[in-house]
Every structure is written in structure tokens, then in C-alpha cells.
From TrEMBL:
The keyword 4Fe-4S applies. Pfam families: Fe_hyd_lg_C, Fer4_10, FeS, PAS_8. InterPro entries: 4Fe-4S_dom, 4Fe4S_Fe-S-bd, 4Fe4S_Fe_S_CS, Cytosolic_Fe-S_CAF, Fe_hydrogenase, Fe_hydrogenase_lsu_C, PAS, PAS-like_dom_sf. Gene3D superfamilies: 3.30.70.20, Electron transport complex subunit B, putative Fe-S cluster, Fe-only Hydrogenase (Larger Subunit), Chain L, domain 3, PAS domain. Keywords: 4Fe-4S, Iron, Iron-sulfur, Metal-binding. One of its GO terms (molecular function) is metal ion binding. This is Iron only hydrogenase large subunit. Residues 3-31, 32-61 form the 4Fe-4S ferredoxin-type domain. The keyword Cell wall biogenesis/degradation does not apply. It comes from Sphaerochaeta pleomorpha (strain ATCC BAA-1885 / DSM 22778 / Grapes). Residues 380-441 form the 4Fe-4S domain. SMART domains: PAS.
Length: 608
């Protein structure tokens, strides 16, 4: 089965944005592609939200659910309470649409939340008003504890999540052979469906639901008009509507729906949301039984709560979402309608059986083996740092360009096989600069690069030998000082450079400059921003010899051709030979006054 979050490798680029956004660094970069590692992933969806090329995908389960609906079983929808913020103007129309999709009935996941709240309150009553548990309402938090804080597994609630409790309750009402499909804002709920089949059977995000509705041509605005015209009836929630627990998807909503919510100071319970806040809380939390924590912790990994889940529609304001959810709950409890009340017998069963109510023979939640939490010796880390170009502490800039918080963290990831040296921006920049420096120092011709303000960005010793009245090798330190100086202080033909900013094509000229004959090649480095020029002194013996050889070869070749046509082409060959020899003379004729003789286009080279 495909992982709930996966990477489309053909669309993944070298940006490392997913590494940067992943709170647990569950991304492995290999051959330039960033892949989600299943054993490390906590399914928060941050990588999906931040991937600029949309290479991080959420597994689409629509087709599987459609086949499930055609299986002949009665299939119930467990609808997340955050539906009030996702479809604020058309919840009733959505219920009609879900029935048309083929669901036998629609029930609120908040019913499971009511059962969980009742269980926690009962436990607290029996233990002096305290319940030092971590809520299991957020499956991402559960995965985080199991994989990264296994010592805190005993702190997790002894009851399953609201969705799992809801699934168990629906089966107790309608039979063990029914099907259950969760629809909500959470990717991690797919893991609950995978790990505990039947509790629920499948999980869809709100994004998948919208896609499904579009495929079936079910427009909620049209259905809303039908409701206004009393052409259709609103299907009721089964077994009935939920009450205060519909506030669960908002930070603090779980506590507010319980008796603790009446305490303005909430001295027995604490609500925390957001990845950094949750991680900070777990880092400092002591294992159960240490006596240092007696608060119930409502931890939601998405900032603001489930209303901002990765499977919900992006771009909506958190303030508006929270307002919709709060008003929806207020209207629900003020209406003269029956709302769900947790049956004491089922609550007692939840407290007694815990996870056995959904899974046999396993009891409770077990920590997953931390195969990725390998410890490395300091000398290994130092070797890895050197491999990344960090030879001393001053090289560790901790810039975050690789996606990791520090160079040391990057080195550990490299040792774990999660990162590649090429991810280090500083290392790659230094290597590129080093290669450029070596090339500029060793190339036997003059090179200069200028910006659009005609200031020198870089140059080499050969350039200064030609235009700086320098007749000795120049050290790199001196060349660095020249960077930023006006180009006109060295060459008198800056207008020719200026022309190149509007011409991205490489062009070559011949130039008589003082007592030298130069071949000048202009090229664009960055369009309309950086222009470079190569200056080759073709009056040097080596170049002159090459020119003579080339001209001589042309003469010999021409002569061989004319031997075959000597009768008719003798005069023409003589004329050609004279022209070629004269061109040799012209090629080495330099002005005697030491002045510039102007640019002459050199058409011998083709740069197209």
C-alpha cells in the first residue's frame, strides 16, 4: 500500500523546503530527491503544504472508498466536527451530497469525542480530580510520542482516539459488519485506518471529498437551492447530533467541552497547539509516575487545532474558522433538539478495556523501535563536518540553507544516510568559487567580469597585465581589492561593454590596443546584469605561429585543389595566394603610435 504521504520523484527539485519544514526531519535526500521516510514520519502534512512543486502528495483513497460503497455492506460516514469551518455555509447541503454518494448514514465523529470526554471526567473523579494523560485525539501527537518520545508512551490516554471510539460505538449499534469511512482535515487519520482496520475502514481528507463531489457533479450551492425550495430533506445525523464536543477541533475545545472548561484558570488541564509548542512541551515532560505533572494535556499538532489540518482548504483565516466552529457549537446546544449523551455502560467499557475495544490481542499503545535514533561518537560527527567543508567552528554558519537547524544536525543526518553533502549551500558555493578562482588564475588570457554599473566583479592577473600596467603575477588578495572598482579606470572602451548588456549573444572582435593585437570575446554571465570579456593577445609567438600554420594549411589545400584544375584556374589560384599572404601581413601590422585602432568583427568563430 502507498504511504499516506509520498513523493512524486519526477516533480521533486533541489529546494530542501520540505526538510526545512519537517519538524522531525523525516525527509531523506538521495540523488537530489527528497523522500518521506515512513518510519520517521508523523504525518503532520507540513511537507505537503510547503512543497513549491507539489511533489509531496497525499494518498488518494477515493477509488477504494467507491469500491467499498459498492460492496453491498452498509457504510457509515464519520464526519469530523471541523466540517463547520470547512463548509460553513452548506453543512446541510453536504449531508444531502454524502447520502447521494451512497453512504447509509452520516454520524459525527464528535460522538466519539463525547465518549472520550466522559471517560476522562470519570477517571478524574476517581483520582482526586486529576488525569495526567496526554490526549490521543491528535494522531500526529500519538505518532510523535511513539517514535520520538517512547518514554512518554505511558502518559498517553488509556482510551483510543475519538475516531476509534466512535467507530467502536457505531459497530455496537449497527453491527460489526458495517463499513466506516472518516472524512475530515487530517492526513494522520489514514494511519489509524491502516493500523486499526475497521476503526475506521478508510479515511478521506476534505480535499479528497471536494474532488469526489466535483467528479460526481454534486454542487453544494445547487443542493442548497433545492433545500431552500423544500425539494429535498436534510438527512439527520445518526444516532443523533453531538453536543459540546463539536468544539474539539479548536485549540482548547476539548477542555471547554468538559467540566474543566468551567474553571477560568483551567488548573487541571492545559491546551497546546502548534508543532513547536507541542515539541517543546514533550521535551520537558516527565514520564508518568514521576510526580512532576498532574495536568491533562490537550495537544494538537496543527496550530489552532484541527480546523487548520493539512487536508482542509488552504488560505482561510484561522480567526474565521474558529468563529464558525464556535458558533456552530453554540447553535447546536441552544437548539431544542436531542444531543448525544455518553452511555455510562459504554464509558465504563472504554475505561476498562481501553485499546482492546478496537484491537486484539494488543493492549494499549506501544513505542515503535527507534531505529533512526542512532547515537554517533564525537569523532564521527567531526569527520562528517569536515566532509561537509566545515574544517573549524568558524565554518559552521548554521545558515539553514540545507533545511537543518545547524551544521551539526546536518552532519548527523549525513551519517544517518538522510542527507547529501550537496545540500550544504556554503560548501557548494565555496567549491564553485574555488573552481572559478583556479580557472581565472591559470587561464593564459585576460578575463574581466563587470556588473550593470560597470564595476569590476572579478578579474585575473592576465587582465591586469594587459590593462593595469602590471608585468608580474598578481596574488588573489590584490585581485580581491580590485573587485568593485570602476571598469573605466582600466579600459577606455567601456561603451563596448555597455552595448553587451542588451545583447545576450557571444561576440568576438579584433582590437589593436597600444602595441598589441587582441582578440576580444564578450559574453553574458547574467542577462542585463553581468557581462564578461576575454582578452587574448594574438601577437604572442604561440598564437602567431598558430595563425601562420592555419594560413599555410589554407594555402597548401588551395594549391592541391588547383593542381587538378591548373589549366583553367591557375590565374585564380595565384590571385587567392596573393590575398592570403597579404592577409598575413595585415594580421601582424600594429599601429606605430600606440593608440587604439578600433574594434573589427572577427567572423572566424561561430558562437551561435
Amino acid at each position: 500500500m502507498i504511504h499516506p504521504i509520498y513523493t512524486e520523484l519526477t516533480e521533486c527539485r533541489d529546494c530542501y523546503k520540505c526538510v526545512r519544514s519537517c519538524p522531525v526531519k523525516a525527509i531523506q535526500v538521495k540523488d537530489g530527491s527528497a523522500v518521506v521516510v515512513k518510519d520517521r514520519c508523523i504525518y503532520c502534512g507540513h511537507c505537503v503544504d510547503t512543497c513549491p512543486s507539489h511533489a509531496k502528495k497525499i494518498r488518494n483513497d477515493i477509488a477504494r472508498v467507491q469500491l467499498f460503497l459498492k460492496s453491498g455492506r452498509k457504510v457509515y460516514c464519520s464526519l469530523a466536527p471541523s466540517v463547520s469551518s470547512e463548509f460553513p455555509q452548506s453543512v446541510d447541503a453536504l449531508l444531502v451530497a454524502l447520502k447521494r454518494l451512497g453512504f447509509t448514514g452520516i454520524s459525527e465523529t464528535a460522538i466519539g469525542a463525547t465518549l472520550v470526554s466522559a471517560g476522562i471526567e470519570r477517571y478524574a473523579e476517581e483520582h482526586g480530580g486529576e488525569c495526567p494523560w496526554i490526549s490521543t485525539a491528535c494522531p500526529t501527537v500519538v505518532q510523535l510520542v511513539k517514535k520520538y518520545y517512547p518514554q512518554l508512551v505511558p502518559n498517553l490516554s488509556k482510551m483510543p482516539s475519538p475516531l476509534q471510539c466512535h467507530s467502536a460505538y457505531l459497530r455496537s449499534l449497527y453491527g460489526e459488519d458495517i463499513g466506516i469511512v472518516f472524512i475530515g482535515p487530517c492526513i494522520a487519520k489514514k494511519v489509524e485506518a491502516d493500523d486499526t482496520p475497521g476503526y475506521p475502514d478508510f479515511a478521506l481528507t476534505f480535499g479528497e471529498l471536494r474532488t469526489w463531489l466535483e467528479r460526481e457533479n454534486l454542487d453544494l450551492d445547487t443542493i442548497e437551492n433545492e433545500l431552500d425550495a423544500h425539494q429535498v430533506e436534510i438527512p439527520p445525523f445518526v444516532p443523533c447530533s453531538a453536543g459540546k464536543s463539536t468544539l474539539y477541533p479548536v485549540e482548547g475545545g476539548m477542555i471547554a467541552s468538559m467540566k474543566w472548561g468551567s474553571d477560568p484558570f483551567q488548573t487541571k488541564a492545559v491546551a497546546i497547539s502548534g508543532s513547536e509548542q507541542v515539541l517543546g512541551t514533550l521535551r520537558e515532560l516527565q514520564p508518568l509516575g514521576s510526580g512532576q505533572n498532574a495536568d491533562f494535556l490537550e495537544l494538537l499538532f496543527c496550530e489552532g487545532g484541527c480546523i487548520n489540518g493539512p487536508g482542509s482548504i488552504p488560505g482561510k483565516s484561522s480567526a474565521f474558522k474558529k468563529g464558525y466552529a464556535s458558533r456552530f457549537t453554540r447553535r447546536r446546544i441552544e437548539k431544542p433538539i436531542e444531543t448525544f449523551q455518553a452511555p455510562p455502560s459504554f464509558v465504563e467499557r472504554l475505561l476498562k478495556e481501553g485499546y482492546r475495544i478496537i484491537r486484539e490481542p494488543e493492549v494499549g499503545i506501544s513505542a515503535l523501535p527507534g531505529v533512526f535514533s542512532a547515537k554517533h561518537k564525537e569523532d564521527e560527527i567531526q569527520k562528517a563536518l569536515k566532509a561537509l567543508g566545515k574544517t573549524d567552528r568558524s565554518d559552521e554558519l548554521d545558515c539553514g540553507g540545507c533545511g537543518y537547524n545547524s551544521c551539526r544536525e546536518m552532519a548527523i543526518a549525513y551519517l544517518d544516510g538522510m542527507a547529501e553533502p550537496e545540500m550544504c549551500v556554503t560548501k557548494m558555493r565555496k567549491e564553485a568559487q574555488s573552481k572559478i578562482d583556479v580557472l581565472l588564475r591559470t587561464i593564459p588570457i585576460g578575463v574581466v567580469i563587470a556588473d550593470d554599473q560597470l564595476r569590476i566583479v572579478d578579474c585575473n592577473s592576465g587582465f591586469l597585465n594587459l590593462f593595469g600596467d602590471v608585468d608580474y603575477p598578481v596574488e588573489k588578495e590584490i585581485l580581491d581589492l580590485i573587485s568593485g572598482l570602476p571598469l573605466e579606470r582600466f579600459v577606455p572602451f567601456i561603451d563596448k561593454f555597455q552595448e553587451q548588456f542588451s545583447n545576450a549573444k557571444t561576440e568576438q572582435y579584433r582590437l589593436h590596443y597600444k602595441d598589441k593585437f587582441l582578440r576580444v570575446t564578450f559574453f553574458s554571465v547574467e542577462k542585463q546584469r553581468l557581462v564578461g570579456a576575454l582578452f587574448e593577445d594574438i601577437t604572442t609567438p604561440t598564437v602567431r605561429r598558430e595563425t601562420v600554420v592555419k594560413k599555410a594549411e589554407d594555402v597548401i589545400q588551395k594549391s592541391l585543389e588547383t593542381v587538378q584544375q591548373i589549366a583553367s584556374l591557375l590565374g585564380e589560384n595565384a590571385a587567392d595566394t596573393e590575398i592570403m599572404l597579404n592577409s598575413l601581413i595585415d594580421a601582424f601590422k600594429v599601429p606605430g603610435n600606440g593608440e587604439i585602432d578600433g574594434f573589427t568583427r572577427d567572423d572566424q568563430q561561430d558562437f551561435s
